Each structure stands twice: as structure tokens, then as C-alpha cells.
Amino acid sequence: MKQRITISGYYGFGNAGDEAMLMAILQEVGSRVAADFTVISADPERTTALHGVKAIRRTDLRAIMGALRRSDLLISGGGSLLQDVTSQRNLWYYLFIMLAAKLLGKRVMVYAQGIGPLQRTTSRWATRLVLNMVDAITLRDSPSAHLLHEMGVRRPSVQVTADCVLGLEPPDLETGDTTLRAAGLADAEQLVLVAPRFWGGDFAYLSHLAAAADRLSREAGATIAFLALHRDYDRAAAHEVADRMEQPAVVLPADLTVHQILAIVGRSQLVVGVRLHALIFAAVTGVPFVGLSYDPKIDHFLAELGEKAIGRVDTVDEATVTEVILTAWKGRQELRHRLSGQMTELRKAARISGQVAAGLVREP
User: Fold this and answer.
1) What integer pLDDT is reported at residue 225 of this predicted model?
2) Which residues pair with 109 in a beta bridge?
3) pLDDT at 187
4) Is residue 328 a contact partner of residue 348, using CB atoms and an 8 Å limit?
5) What is the number of other CB atoms lying within 10 angstroms of the CB of residue 130?
6) pLDDT computed for residue 170 by the predictor
7) Which ranges of the chain would DSSP assign to H, the alpha helix?
8) 3-state secondary structure of 219
9) Sign of CA dihedral 194, 195, 198, 199
10) How far apart are CA 156 and CA 206, in angstroms?
């Protein structure tokens, strides 16, 4: 008999990173246990079309409660769901879903999440209350575990794994060729992908990215293409950087699937990312990358690989951005080799969360 699993997260918003996490959860858990999945989504029709699973609208409380009543397990994850920097309302929402499931007597798992920042006392109190009720917690980085310990989360035991997207297999690169041809980049052998985003009110760092991209284009003959990982927000940021460049550049379509994005990344020589999952996509495909940080999760991921961010988007200067990116370009083969050695263990760690989830639904 199939198990019934409901998945809660930031799905259906057009964010490729979150859709990749959903893909990874479905693949990893689905490979270990026969299950019918129901995904709570902002766009149920699109979620069903992309992932082939039943989806319900995240504002439909009756449908959500019905799904939880029928479920054997609620998975909350992955990503940075439990934080109060971008929105405290979202924090309350995800905690409510977990609390409702527990009050209905269901098993609940926090799946490969990154916790925090949690700046408000009420946020920490509520998070501690709910997480001490769940059945399993896996986290994508050690600082998240330290934060939960500091907050007083003692039950269940916390296991540090890795971002679940790191468990995905590298894509079929022919899809990347097809997508690049459609974008007019059929002959882009020295392709550099830049994945920017707006953050705060100071966009000076976008000019720094433009200057570094111009240097790469002029001095290394690199082809610059901009990747919008969030369909509704990042395309404007991509055009902003491209417009500030002197050299030609291409802004890739904003409606690419996760598989297409992974395949394009796999065909590139270097990824410059502000979005976390631009860096993770690069790691999955074995492509060298450098990151600009706007959130501790960027620094945490880079630290897991022994790397550091170029700087923070709100304080970094143009000279530093340009120097680090040019240095990464020149040393990209060494970076690629080092990354290859690190990914074996990261893939293993990323798949542990699926083992934990499968164990929860197999237990009587």
C-alpha cells in the first residue's frame, strides 16, 4: 500500500531553487518508498505540470487540513522556510502547517532546511515550541544546528546533512545545447553565467558585476549570459546588470525549467551567483563558481566547501568583485578539480534526508 505524504514549502512561486528542492525531495523519497505525494503550492496547476504530483493551493485551509488528515507524513522543506528576515508571516505559516499536522497526530519531518536568521524573540519562541514537537529534523548546514541548540530545541535529535539539491544527478547536457541555441548562444564555448538578484535598496553591486563581466568579455573572450532563478524578480535585476555593461550580453528566458537551467549551467565555464541555488546548481554539474553574499546561507554553503564569498552585496567594492571573478576564471580548472573531489561526500550527505523520511513512514 502506498504511503501518503504531504510536502510544505515555498513552491509554485517561480523560484528555480525551491522547485529544484521539491524535485530532489520527490525523487529521493520516491525512490525509497511507494508514496502518493500532495504538494502545498502557490500555483497548484503549474506544480502538477512540472512535477507530476497532486497539488493544493497554499491559501486553501480546508484542502490543507484534509490533506494532513489523510497523510502518514508531513515534510516541511527544504530551503530557508524558518526565518523572519524576508517575512515573519511566512514563518508563522510554515510553523502552523507543522503544528496542525502534529495536533492531528501525524508524523512531521523538517527536511534539509537552513534555519534563520530569527531576529525576533517571538519567532524564536514559536520555532522552539513547534520543532520540539516534530519527529525528525535534518539540516543543510552546521550553523543551523548550532542555532537550534542555542534556542533550546532538544527533541528530536538534529542531523546535519546537506542541501537536498546536491543529491540530484548531473543533467543531460544536450538539453543545455538546445536551450542555448534558442537563446542565440550556440557557439558560446567560453560561457559565464551570472545569477543576480535585487537585495535591499543599494544596487551599487550590480554595477560592480557589470564591470567584472565587461573585463571577462574583453580580456578572456567570455560570453556573458544572465540567469534569472526567480521568474518574477530576478529578470529585472539581470536586465539591470546587462544594461550597465559596455560589452554585449544575453539575458536568458525567465521561464526555464530546473532541468534546462541545470543543463545550461553544465555547459558553462564559470558561474557567478548571488542566488544560493545558482551556486548549488554549479556544484551539482561540477562547474566552478564564485558567490556574492546577501544572506548567511550563502556563507554557510561556501564554508562547507572551504570557500568564501566575494563579499556582501551591500558593502563589496568594484575592485574586489572584479579581482575575485577574474582570478576564478584563470583558476577555473583547479576549482573544477577541487569541486569534483568534494561532491562525492556532499551527494551522500544530501541523500540522508530521504532515508530519514522513508524510515518515518515505514515505522509502525
Assistant:
1) 97
2) 75, 136
3) 80
4) no
5) 21
6) 86
7) 16-30, 44-51, 61-70, 88-103, 121-131, 142-151, 173-182, 204-220, 234-244, 258-266, 276-285, 296-304, 318-330, 332-362
8) helix
9) negative
10) 43
Distance CA 169, CA 1 (A): 28
C-alpha cell at 245: 555593461
| Strand, coil or helix: 291 | strand
- Give CA angle at 15 (64, 117), nearest 5°: 80
Spatial separation of the C-alpha atoms in residues 54 and 44, rounded to whole Å? 8
- The Cα 136–Cα 353 span in angstroms is 9
> Which uninterrupted H or E stretch holds 3?
strand 3-8
Q: For position 202, what pLDDT does the model report? A: 66
Three cell numbers, residue 344: 562525492
For residue 88, the model assigns a pLDDT of: 87
- Answer for the pair 106, 73: CB distance below 8 angstroms, yes or no: yes
Under-70 pLDDT residues of the chain: 202, 364
Residues 88, 291: Cα–Cα separation, whole Å: 26
Q: How many Å apart are CA 282 and CA 193, to the nearest integer?
A: 10
Predicted local distance difference test score (pLDDT) of residue 364: 64
Say how far apart CA 40 and CA 38 lie, in whole Å: 7
Task: Return the SS3 of 104.
Answer: coil
Do the strands 223-226 and 250-251 form a parallel or antiparallel pair, or are they unpaired?
A: parallel
What does each C-alpha distance from 183 to 171, 180, 271, 334 come to in angstroms?
Answer: 19, 5, 18, 29
| Cα(113)–Cα(350) distance, integer angstroms | 11
> How far is it, in rounded angstroms, from Cα 249 to Cα 231?
19
What residues contact residue 168 under an 8 Å CB cut-off, 6+ apart? 20, 23, 24, 27, 262, 284
Q: How far apart are CA 276 and CA 195, in angstroms?
A: 9
Distance of alpha carbon 183 from alpha carbon 20, whole angstroms:
22
- How much is the CA Rg of the chain, to the nearest whole Å? 20
Q: What angle do CA 260, 261, 267 make, to 5 degrees?
A: 90
Q: CA dist 305 to 1, 97, 116, 286, 328, Å? A: 41, 33, 20, 13, 15
